[in-house]
Amino acid sequence: MSTLNPARRLAANLSASRWLPYALFAGLVTMWAYNYVVMKVTLQAATPITHLIIRTAIGSLTLFGVLLARGHGIRPQRLRDVCQVGLSSNFLYGLAVTLALVAGAAGRTSVLVFTMPFWVALLSRWLLAEPFSRNALRAMAAGFAGLMLIVAPWQLHGGMLPMLCAVLAGLFWALGSVLSKRATQRGQLDSLNFSGWQALIALLPMLLLLPFADFAGIHWSPAFVLGMVYSGVFSSAVGWLAWLWLLRRLPASTLSFNSLVIPVLAVGMAAYSLGEWPRPDELLGMLLIGAGIVLIARR
């Protein structure tokens, strides 16, 4: 009996390690989906630029603080890759989302960032030489149609600028993810070191935005503080570490296409928390996104 227990424990550990990336991914997409609800609430207490600077600072200092607390391996690894990922995934992505929120409707415009998986599929083919099958093409068509039904860009007010900024945010997020994947393929990489430095580098350009911030106009409350901690620490810092860890273990295009479930979850969470119930065309869009996820998983 005692000789079987170690074998059973080993089998259980192997099974757990095999399912760990999928369990982590499920938690990550749930956390990121709920962050849309959190951001929508906290944006009522601060201007978008102020909100962007605060949550970026919280996330960046959290990651770099953990790196410093570890006490070793502080010197940046592959500084060029760190700068590229930090500027694209953090600074440019955050700035584009903020401009989209300033110029257009916050809820629907922000969902347009989930054109990201389509950009990842194209960039992965070019930068990572990942295969692009017919199923991927079908998934792209179904997912894009679903997103268009959910977002309904033809109903957005304020012209093309909000759409363009949000789509650019998806492009910058995709570029950072693909560059991160490529960096991990070049050899061993310390995820915490890489994340900490790219977050700190992304914080530096935020100094240029300080004249446009209005810290004195913030409406402070426990809900605002908790919301900023959620967005900065969990959604930004912890979320980025988890995303980078997953990129090392799953194909970038597959991981990104499956993240299309996030806007579906966000719509449901917004309906429950904020009373924003989806229209029939949004429900159809969710079904199309689900079809795209199935297709990309079978590629």
UniProtKB/TrEMBL annotation:
Keyword Membrane set for record: yes
Keywords, sorted A to Z: Membrane, Transmembrane, Transmembrane helix
Subcellular location: Membrane
Ranges for domain EamA: 22-151, 162-297
Cytoplasm found in the keyword field: no
Membrane topology: Multi-pass membrane protein
Membrane-spanning ranges: 20-37, 49-70, 82-105, 111-128, 135-154, 160-180, 192-212, 224-247, 254-274, 280-297
UniProt xrefs under SUPFAM superfamilies: Multidrug resistance efflux transporter EmrE
Family per similarity comment: Belongs to the EamA transporter family.
Protein name: DMT family transporter
